[in-house]
Specification:
Shape: elongated
CATH class of the largest domain: Alpha Beta
CATH architecture of the largest domain: 3-Layer(aba) Sandwich
Distance between the termini: 12 Å
Strand order of the largest sheet: 11-12-10-13-14-9-15
Structural class: alpha/beta
Radius of gyration: 33 Å
Bound molecules: adenosine-5'-diphosphate, magnesium ion
Largest sheet: 7 strands, parallel
Amino acid sequence: MRPDPLNPLFASAESLTGIGPRLIVLLRKALALPPGVTEPRVVDLLWHLPAGVIDRRAEPSVAEALPGTIATLKVRVLKHRGPPRGNTKAPYKVSTEDDTGRLDLVFFHAERRFIEAQLPEGEIRYVSGRVERYGDTLQMAHPDYIVAPERRGDLPMLEPVYGLTAGLSSKVLGKAMRQAATGVAVLNEWQEVDWLAQRAWPSFNEALRRLHTPTDAADISAAAPPRQRLAYDELLAGQLALGLVRQGARQRPGRSTVGDGRIRTRIKAALPFSLTNSQISALVEIEADMAATTRMQRLLQGDVGSGKTLVALMAMAIAVEAGGQAALMAPTEVLARQHAETILPICAAAGLRVGLLTGREKGRSRAAVLTRLVEGEIDILVGTHALFQPDVVYRDLAFVVIDEQHRFGVHQRMALQAKGGTEGVNVLAMTATPIPRTLLMTHYGDLDVSRLTEKPAGRKPITTTLVSTERIAEVIEGLKRALGQGAQIYWVCPLIETSDVSDLAAAEERAAHLAQTFGDKVGLIHGAMAGPAKDKVMEAFSTDELKILVATTVIEVGVNVPNASIMVIEHAEQFGLAQLHQLRGRVGRGSRQSFCILLWRGPLGEAARARLEMMRDTEDGFLIAEKDLELRGGGEVMGARQSGAPEFRVAEVPGFEELLAAARDDARLVLNADPNLTSPRGEALRALLYLFEQDEAVRLFRAA
Ligand code: ADP
Ligand code: MG
């Protein structure tokens, strides 16, 4: 249950004076509401932080007032002068003065009654707004504030400026904000006092107050203590929530799977190479996870070509040694088949029985696979999402590997896991898209991570060049020479997102164009092709019958043809960095020197050029991923976020990464020492979790 003092924050914003049904509609537009929230609440106002301030602190006399500046003046109202009858364009003027001079207040399209009420002749008023010179007179058009001396306090000398929406006035919003920010109950401090002191951060309430009712313009800055404090609060709440999820997952029972090593020994003997150190250490971690009685949730990250498949195979072998079955799920048919083919010879040598199940296995062949599966005659089943269809029954599924896991939804992962009975299947997820550290922390904090940082020995660097499409004829000449030396070539045409047809048309056209030079050595593969047709083309390419494979991005993941050493990517400027990196990873797998030619079509903007140059200059997938994140933002890199949903309410500040790392460490320490959050700080942190709406996470631990 959410602590009582927080309840007012989660009440409708209508609970604030001055906010009624009409304004709620406007607020809904102006505020970035989290998914599922339709009714703006007080807390949504609080997270709507000012973008700047208007400084009204200059209080000159009329004679001193500088035209073009914002000022607050104390004047006596002299005379109202409405526009001449029939002339609605002329302004309504009110002349005022102080001891040093005259100031005209000017109103266009004015409502006379309102102005008369605000500015009675003979009275003293404070007016605040932009002072301008108009001919010989000094004037202020539509003052932002007109207040009587006794209401002087209503005039914010430093007025926060909020992101607004048409029809919503900053005055009304500001008033509601002041009320919201100063009305927050004082909660027990959830941050460590030393940490606050070290950073010179204010308390939570003080931070809100300084942001929404500033007395110092510098406080508004996202780098200033009040905002940094709130950012850290949000990050800590997020990290605690992930930590709790992970702790919960760890507490869920998993099957302790311990192998005797006999199959792994045979696999190693069948390999023409030895494992890399990265592979060895990943396997040590995996082995420990599998042996534990809690459920394994590990992510294996490794660049293309780093040898994840072998790690997966060794891990699956553990499950089989322990008497169970394993499944390897890939996102596409091509990839599933490729996996099956790659592991087949080694499995045969090691005595592992492999089955294949994709959408294409139908009728009798499918029935045969299912029978062998349920009878335990298949040790490792490789396939697509067909692996978890309702009628697929395993004799004893103990271990699941999910390749390119970001392509699967959570429910698909769960469905496959559910095939393993009550004990809980251990899961190893793999991804070749290196995930930047920050995203790992914010999105995958519930997973343990192993990284393959080292490439198998003997890999040659890939030479990447940037070439303008105008020089395509030269590129084709170069390809002729390379073909003469036995090379094979991928030629990738861009995905045109709005239409599969034009996407396909582009690839078909390019294939036809290349066929003019290279004849029947050119093949074409694209997403719209039927499975068997795709296999046939892939097969012809991998047996070196086809020399050039023109493809849409269907070849993006996983395909392995070691003899292919040249990758041409057309319209490279249209691809994301991570995608280019994936594509380039298709080459550089054999003994040949490999090349990647990025064909670009101008004009190239500065950013696009920088991206392509980055590709040319590095092959480090992790570095590229970081850059991609920087250029495109987290939501897009992950692809799975609901569009428009804010990732963070307040945490996107300078120093974000450092704060995030600190929050992660802090959360770990807290949960290690106080897993149920029952210490005084733990109790305070529960309020923090509710404040940032991590209620789900709070539910995960037993109420103490
Ligand atoms: P990934 O799936 O990580 O992109 P793969 O598992 O497809 O990479 O491996 C790429 C290639 O490297 C394969 O041809 C594989 O046989 C080879 N390979 C894997 N591990 C090693 C190793 N330790 N030494 C040499 N080659 C390896
Ligand atoms: Mg792979």
